Amino acid sequence: DDGMSAQVLRLGAGMSVAGPDPRIAGGYYVFVINGSLQQQGKELPLWSMVVVENNEEAFTIQAGSKGLEALVLQYPREETTQ
């Protein structure tokens, strides 16, 4: 209910998928666990991480030239006190 989730994505070379909507939770991390991730014309290698804050637009997760396995960790919304 709080938006927390974790998933592993596997994409072939050059494939892409829309990342989760960062506004439904507290944002998320994309960790490269195999292959590489394309971002702004650069290939991010193994162990790279992209942070998507909950005030940003949706992020497109795109595999590099050898494909991509990525761990997407969406963290929960912050509790607001009233």
Parts with pLDDT < 50 across at least 5 consecutive residues: none
Q: Main β-sheet: number of strands, strand sense, barrel status?
A: 6 strands, antiparallel
Determine the strand fraction and express it as a percent band.
Answer: over 45%
User: How many angstroms does the end-to-end distance come to?
Assistant: 19 Å
Number of helices: 0
The total strand number stands at 6
Helix content: under 10%
Order of helices and strands: EEEEEE
- The rough form would be described as elongated
- What class, by secondary structure content? mainly beta
Overall mean pLDDT: 92
Radius of gyration: 13 Å
Secondary structure elements and pairings:
Blueprint: E1 5-11, E2 16-18, E3 27-39, E4 42-44, E5 49-53, E6 60-74
Antiparallel strand pairs: 1-6, 2-6, 3-4, 3-5, 3-6
Please describe what this structure looks like:
The chain is mainly β. It contains no helices and six strands. The protein has strands spanning 5-11, 16-18, 27-39, 42-44, 49-53, 60-74. Strands 1, 2, 3, 4, 5 and 6 form a six-stranded antiparallel beta sheet that branches. It is elongated. The model has no long low-confidence stretch (mean pLDDT 92).
